[in-house]
Design a protein that fits this description.
Blueprint: H1 3-12, E1 24-27, E2 31-37, E3 41-48, E4 51-54, E5 56-59, E6 63-69, E7 83-89, E8 94-96
Antiparallel strand pairs: 1-2, 2-6, 3-4, 3-7, 5-6, 7-8
Length: 97
């Protein structure tokens, strides 16, 4: 089991001392990785500048991830306030968060 998988297990079990080491935005040399934990979500779309991009559900407990190349998003303009998640819940309701 990788270190990332161990940390994800800790987050899901509410035992991680700093979940945002994994959740949220994490830049790499060539990509941006977004992760969110939404246990009631059936699907999540990342929304930036009007474009919706489907996130991948990487854990059945509701952990979603999107890895996108930096060329698709200007990281200098990216803030926590100019992107959203469009969440579809299992009951069919939707919500922007």
């Amino acid at each position: 089991m990788s270190n990332l998988e161990k940390q994800i297990d800790q987050i899901i079990q509410a035992e991680h001392y700093d979940p945002f080491q994994i959740l949220g935005l994490h830049p790499t040399s060539s990509t941006l990785i977004f992760r969110t934990l939404q246990p009631q979500a059936q699907s999540i779309e990342f929304v930036y500048e009007g474009e919706h991009i489907l996130m991948k559900k990487i854990r059945e407990e509701g952990l979603f991830e999107l890895e996108i190349t930096k060329s698709k998003i200007d990281i200098d303009k990216l803030t926590p306030y100019n992107y959203q998640y469009f969440i579809t819940f299992y009951d069919g309701n939707t919500h922007y968060r």
